[in-house]
């Protein structure tokens, strides 16, 4: 695959319009209240997510026919059907519980992955009315304004986001680790909040609405779009501990949060 067949920063406008359109379509299909039937919830989610994915796939394939397309269930380090390590990764609804319960704080996200790293990321927040986007090396923006993460925040004044392992299939060890980290950090920060969507939480770090975000586990594909946008806004994004989880904040606050969350002296962090 030649370099000229890849998207460039000038393609962000049409990609943003595509994500906005699908986000609004999904919002129009969102239930107005929580459902009592699990099978109905599954049908609602699967139908909406699949139709949005098909629309995204059709447009992207028409524009860049050589780039494969995958949903977030794929391993970002093993692109499907590509010898070049380049593919689109789509998460049509990140924040499924919120979506199915008629709540805000869910997103529609698209990432161009190149050799396991995000090159382009676009996140539509349909209920909040925001669209975040970034091209690696060119900064991040929202609504035409360049994003810059918060700086110099004292931990005692910091508001953090997290996601807790509430899916029944998540191992008990993830829950135990989450509770351990939560117990360490709460006494040292102004507020700890759960936004719901990891993608949106990381975008809010980029916007300076949240001062930091942390999560246990290994949901790398969930973190790819938001991590690029946060990093391009100046945040340091690393594993939370020993190559797992994620921690994002401005560099100074990151070091202090790492010390608190890990329960040890801050490591020399490697970028996630």
From TrEMBL:
<keyword id="KW-0479">Metal-binding</keyword>
<keyword id="KW-0460">Magnesium</keyword>
<dbReference type="GO" id="GO:0006020">
    <property type="term" value="P:inositol metabolic process"/>
</dbReference>
<dbReference type="GO" id="GO:0007165">
    <property type="term" value="P:signal transduction"/>
</dbReference>
<feature type="binding site">
    <location>
        <position position="94"/>
    </location>
    <ligand>
        <name>Mg(2+) 1</name>
    </ligand>
</feature>
<feature type="binding site">
    <location>
        <position position="91"/>
    </location>
    <ligand>
        <name>Mg(2+) 1</name>
    </ligand>
</feature>
<protein>
    <recommendedName>
        <fullName>Myo-inositol-1(Or 4)-monophosphatase</fullName>
    </recommendedName>
</protein>
<dbReference type="GO" id="GO:0046872">
    <property type="term" value="F:metal ion binding"/>
</dbReference>
<dbReference type="Pfam" id="PF00459">
    <property type="entry name" value="Inositol_P"/>
</dbReference>
<feature type="binding site">
    <location>
        <position position="222"/>
    </location>
    <ligand>
        <name>Mg(2+) 1</name>
    </ligand>
</feature>
<dbReference type="InterPro" id="IPR000760">
    <property type="entry name" value="Inositol_monophosphatase-like"/>
</dbReference>
<dbReference type="GO" id="GO:0008934">
    <property type="term" value="F:inositol monophosphate 1-phosphatase activity"/>
</dbReference>
<feature type="binding site">
    <location>
        <position position="93"/>
    </location>
    <ligand>
        <name>Mg(2+) 2</name>
    </ligand>
</feature>
<comment type="similarity">
    <text>Belongs to the inositol monophosphatase superfamily.</text>
</comment>
